[in-house]
Design goal:
- It is built from eight helices and 15 strands.
- It is α/β, with parallel strands linked by helices.
- It folds into two domains: about 200 residues, FAD/NAD(P)-binding domain; about 100 residues, 3-Layer(bba) Sandwich (FAD/NAD(P)-binding domain).
- Strands 1, 2, 3, 4, 5, 6 and 15 form a seven-stranded mixed beta sheet that branches. Strands 7-14-8-9-10 form a five-stranded parallel beta sheet, covered by helices on one side.
- The longest helix has 14 residues.
Amino acid sequence: MNLPYDLICIGAGPTGLACAIEAKRAGLRALVADKGCLCNSLFHYPVNMVFFTTPELMEIGDLPMTTASDKPTRAEALKYYRKAAEHYALELKLYESVERVSGQDGKFEVHTRTAQGEKMDYAARKIVIATGYYDLPNRIGVPGEDLPHVRHYYTEAHAFWGQDVVVVGGKNSAAEAALDLWRGGARVTLVHRHAELGASIKYWVRPDIENRIKAREIAAFFETEITQIEPRDVIVKNPQGSRRILATAVFLLTGYHPDFDFLREQGIALDPATMKPHCNPETLESNVPGIYLAGVILGGRHTGEIFIENGRFHGKQIIAALTKK
């Protein structure tokens, strides 16, 4: 094992990169490990996604983000974070899953496994966990959820041209997917368990989806839940009774959650109601000395509380605590 790193960041999303950048700017040696590619969650966002924010609110390391319009696209964000990692010459271990963390404050060991199955070990004085939440979808727990035509992520519409597609959910992801699929020539049905669409839907998306539903270009069932998924259709139930809806593809866009099991395995205490991890709000150090938390995982189940816009500053807090500045 080589000399220990001052800091190992688990998670190579914008927050993890920001933590490593701040560490490097403070003269510390940092390593970033991720089981996927750089900004793996952003990479798996819908291909044509536009962020609901401005470029300057996604910047890290005091590097300006340049975009063609007032809101960054997925492609522009990915390019920006690649360039940020290159600019600061960050040490990265991508496609390397962290299996466990052992040791104690000042003498941690991070045990990983590469995509080729090779086991690796790295020593670190401090740990930052910034693993996000997008890797673990909220399952609806019905028969057929694991069928091959059922997906928890949406990418693009082309493959579903001329197909019957059911989209489950009522927030931004579901609304945008339904619209994109409809424009791509799919026959779309939106199923949502509540009486109306979510209040947080982007202001330019809401009238679009509502008008498509009003014109019956997109079918919509509210106060409706799926009870079973079959190879060619789904069975839904609402106050009017049960019915079948044709579906050669089903998108369950019902949200995502942090890897709570991984946090527990490190000894981090979670609030039983909110699942928010225990940590010092000033330093972001968890109840486990030497392990710090950053990004959306601080929100527990409330994943809508923390975004790139505010999570990107967690690195400054953590490094300030480590360097006593």
